[in-house]
Amino acid sequence: MLKRLLITLAFLLPGSLHAADLRVVATTNSMGALATAVGGERISLTVLAPPDRDAHFLQARPSMMRDLRRADLVIAVGAGLEAGWLPVAVKRAANRDIQPGQPGHFQAAEHVELLDVGESGAGHTHASGNPHFNLDPRRMSTLLPALAERLADIDPAGAPTYEANAAAAVARIETRMPQWQATVAGAPGAVFHHADTRYLMDWLELPTLGYLEPVPGVPPTARHISELAESLEGRDGVIIHAPYYPESGPKKLGDALGWPIEQRYTEPSEPTLEGWVDLIDGWVDALAPRD
Question: Which residues of the chain form beta strands (DSSP E)?
């Protein structure tokens, strides 16, 4: 009887279940990296979008609803990135704690300054702003303390841990930023498939030489590639695209200009700070000047 009482009391004591207390669902591995960096052992994490898929174009699946139904917190990129599937999944999960406007619903885009706000037109555009800020160390650093504050709202006992973890992650990123910038100093710039590198190039102060898409979300056309090649003739640069995009457009442009072609995912392979740092390392290496 005494043993049973002691076990019950242990489960009731504050902090006694600190390991994986909070069930967190992130839409992407970048958002998951923020969660694990700040939450540490106090959270368990599920990521909805595979890193080798374009998060614009997923579909709400029963497995998503299952994970969201049990979640204490959902961390989304926002700015319309998951508009085609997350609202449906959250609604069907019927979990009051993670509905929009609740503490358990964290939209990262609401905590950073967005670029390209108000842009609209043909193709795949985001009038609320460009949602691809996960490649920008400045904005990711801003999100870490914001997420720590939200986790503390849900789990007050963990507030000191979340704050300390966020500060440590910010310090690590800020240490790497000058190294990344030095690596790409003098680089000629790049052509990309989509504007998912907008923040990266803004931070690195490198020129975007063009996009393979004639307008966002519209596949490259032969005419557009030819016009792009003509406008860039005689210049140096590199073509970088995600592996899930067709290779025909980059190859045609690369052949015309004699430029190297690099493939890089825009999400880390693992939802950890280490994985995200490796992701930025890869992009910096691809953009760096060539001998």
Answer: 22-26, 43-47, 73-76, 105-107, 190-192, 208-211, 238-241, 261-263
